[in-house]
Amino acid sequence: MSLQRSVDPGQVGFDPARLARIDAHFARYVDTGALAGWQLVVTRRGEIAHVSTYGLRDREAGKPVEPDTLWRIYSMTKPITSVAAMILWEEGRLQLTDEISRWLPEFADVRVYDRGSTLKPYTVPAIEPIRVWHLLTHTAGLTYGFLQTSVVDGLYRAAGFDLYPPVGFDLATATAGLARLPLLFQPGTAWGYSVATDVLGRLIEVVSGQSLDAFLAERVLGPLGMTDTRWWAEGPDAERLAACYAPDPTSGQAVRYDAIGRLALEKPTLLAGGSGLLSTAADYHRFTQFLLRGGELDGVRLLGPRTVRFMTRNHLPGGQDLGRLSTGGFAETTFDGIGFGLGFAVVEDPVPSRTPSSVGEYYWGGVASTAFWVDPVEEVTALLFTQLVPSSTYPLRAELRQLVYSAIVD
């Protein structure tokens, strides 16, 4: 499945000449060697106003980016898993306020880091149990080992939880292992980017009685027609997979990064609900349109419109923003003026981050510099696909917002 422009940009309020700036700007990243290639999609009012590709999906093999190129979407898996959890919520099979230990008893007596070192940490009992909404909002106190910003991150790495989980772990054993590690903070008191969505994936398995991949295929990906979204690429599909790159620390040139890139060619032992999927621009476009349309696409409704609106409000304690509650470290967002909903960052005030977004825009991205956003006010969606790790290397997402919003002239 590929995408084509479905409307003249002027018919949906875009200036075509201003939209053309997008390709010219991002082409420079490829022409200077900073990126290998990219794919972009911009829509308004449900119509595709701009779609483009540039450069190579595999520079060393000389293979161009094609409309059906497969991309590692990493943390853009999180919103999909969050939608799956909310499907169960709409069916009354869980409550957002439920303690997760109801289904995952290993989390019944979690402890919280208080002081000390990785060699001798001191912990205290959790005052508040981890609840379902804590997982959806990254306020559970979990973290990521690769962040390297706290003693708890170090404890994760010592236990084998770095960018990837310990070899041989599946989702059940990984979740059990994470439950034995201390929390970074008391649940519900701060925001920390984390493995929370992986734990949410395990929760979905236990509540539904299905494996995460089976549940996503049956209840989300299949109904939405996301036929190219999968956990790994094999056979002929492996030829469509973009190579993964990282910046050379001296030259800034994109250098092939097969150490993690090749993992997408192997069936994973662990289905990571927070980072495991590969997808195409056409597939993720369908996901953004499902969100923009309030939980329905092509006559198939997965969520009610009020549920989508509820998911994309700020659920952080006290209505605070990430600038006040974030524990720091790596994240796919700026902090000031940004809240967090049930699976998405949410713009509360665009001024502090100096981006011309609308209040209520929601979004997320992946560690290989992929990104999407949905703006229900302007009825705009945008998608960016490339494969450069880490996503903090260049301000690609902020620049795309500048270019897209400055092209709206109605």
From TrEMBL:
GO terms for molecular function: hydrolase activity. Keywords: Hydrolase. InterPro entries: Beta-lactam-related, Beta-lactam/transpept-like, Diverse_Enzym_Activities. Its EC number is 3.-.-.-. It comes from the Bacteria. SUPFAM superfamilies: beta-lactamase/transpeptidase-like. It is an enzyme of class 3 (hydrolase). Residues 22-402 form the Beta-lactamase-related domain. PANTHER family: BETA-LACTAMASE FAMILY PROTEIN (AFU_ORTHOLOGUE AFUA_5G07500), BETA-LACTAMASE-RELATED. This is Serine hydrolase domain-containing protein. It comes from Plantactinospora solaniradicis. The lineage of its organism: Bacteria, Bacillati, Actinomycetota, Actinomycetes, Micromonosporales.
